[in-house]
Amino acid sequence: MFKRSLCRLLGVAAIAGSLFAAMPTMGEAAIVEGYAPIENGNVQKAREKAREDAMRTMIEQQVGVQIQSETVVVNAEVVSDRVMSKANGYVRVNRMIAEENRGQIYYVKMDVTADEQVIKTAIQDVRAQLEAVYDENTTRSGVQIAVTERDENGKVQNVTDTLKYVQAKMEDIGFKVTVNDAVLLYLDKQTDLDSPKVNVEVRQIARENREEENAILRGTLSTVSVKSAGNLTEASVKASFELLGIDSSVANSFSDYYTAVGTSRVDAINKARQLATQNAVETLGQKALNTVQHEFQGGTHHIKMNLIFQGITDRNGQYNAIMNALGAIGCRVIRSSFVSDGSLKVFVDAAGFGTTADLQNSILSNVAGLNPGTEDANAIGSTKLYFTF
After folding, report:
1. Does 18 have pLDDT greater than 50?
2. pTM over cut 0.85
3. For the chain, how many helices (H) and strands (E)?
């Protein structure tokens, strides 16, 4: 079998205690520095990016301290991403010590404090999500991944850390993720990754080496340039990622350039690669929720989605009626649970339905007293069907 589950072989990133021995304890203020390139003369944008860079340094420090203190195993970069998405509310800038233009680099030095509870909650949430994907019954769906990296000379680079990060990001969304070694080997051997035949071959290889995955996320990270910027280094990386339906012709693409500044060559490249990978995976990861929902397997259309049943007054009776009806119309129940508001959430693989409307009508026809429900406009993730008694 060419494919492997990366977490099984590599584990999720564990942070060694010695790495953070000199970092501040939880809740203490810290002095951090941040850098960002001034692109196209946009100083204000560079200032914001430099502040983000400094804040992320603080967050990563605090994540490391807490991981060490709780001896938990999570992906620190994914936790940092979560907190960074709310950084303006949860990282307090006590004072701006210094900020200035340094040629084409914007520099900031800040006194900041990160919110301890937010980081603790993020660690717990990510840990729970990553652990949940090991259980087949709690997995939304499967996605294969294969990412190749090239330096500025086109030489293939080691992708272990990148794959680990991509896997954790996709699992944080809710997918079971496996690395397709055969696709990875194929991509590493290609000199023209933009050739139309590449995606054809990738789909074929993915189809031959899969279990239940419906899509493959394949990507290329290419270091475009690395240059000195005084006593700092500036690196630019291009991210070219595509999300491909394995059985269907569905394809979503992402392509963009990211530039970062670091205290060394390795630091600058790693920062640029992380920015590129984060944006590519977050963008395509959300699209994957829809890509894997509608697939053809063996000539049969499959719809994988959550069904929300509201207004339940008889848990046992109505639960049994729903389950019997779903089984009768060809829905395989992957998982089900009652949520805090009393609603029943059921994730199904429905075979043989042309559209979600067909699925909805069939369920309504087979469960007595059931009506269309009110859609939750604030719900996140893939499309859901709502019902009510």
Report:
1. no
2. no
3. 11, 16
